[in-house]
Design brief:
2 domains, globular
Length: 157
């Protein structure tokens, strides 16, 4: 049941972090904001490692993957900070909900995995929810949010 509490905490604090990052980007370079985001997470990671007491099944491969993925995560976060600096959060954040859609293709290409029907329905519901966040532009047609994306240069950055 710990997963439920951690999920709720994440759902509360991640949007707050994005809003604070957007505010910090007004006066600070994106690199500094990325450094701050990672630095504030480190104490919590050490707490988790300390209380883990060797109960997890992490091996050399896990740590190698984690360390090698960190530079990619840092670059992705830097690009994300630059995106939220130049465009409104309401236009940037919904794109994150489309991540599972792209993961269908990459998971199949890299691992040969295909989600089952309940997984596909969940992915479609999340994507539809992100799409409907732009309901006000639907008066111009069903594909208005996509055409808006192509027209607004800041959203493509």
């Amino acid at each position: 049941m710990l997963w439920l509490h951690l999920s709720l905490i994440t759902a509360i604090f991640l949007p707050i972090t994005d809003a604070l990052s957007k505010h910090a980007l007004k006066n600070s370079p994106a690199e500094l904001v990325v450094w701050a985001r990672f630095s504030f997470a480190v104490p919590f990671l050490f707490i988790i490692i300390f209380f883990n007491n060797g109960t997890s099944n992490t091996d050399h491969t896990f740590w190698l993957t984690t360390v090698s993925a960190f530079p990619l995560e840092a670059v992705a976060t830097l690009l994300y900070m630059k995106a939220i600096r130049i465009s409104p959060l309401s236009m940037t954040i919904p794109f994150l909900a489309l991540t599972p859609v792209f993961l269908i293709a990459t998971s199949f290409a890299l691992l040969g995995e295909i989600p089952d029907s309940s997984g596909l329905i969940g992915i479609l519901l999340v994507a539809a929810g992100a799409y409907t966040l732009n309901l006000k532009v639907f008066k111009n047609g069903v594909f208005a949010p996509l055409s808006r994306l192509l027209k607004v240069k800041k959203a493509r950055s």
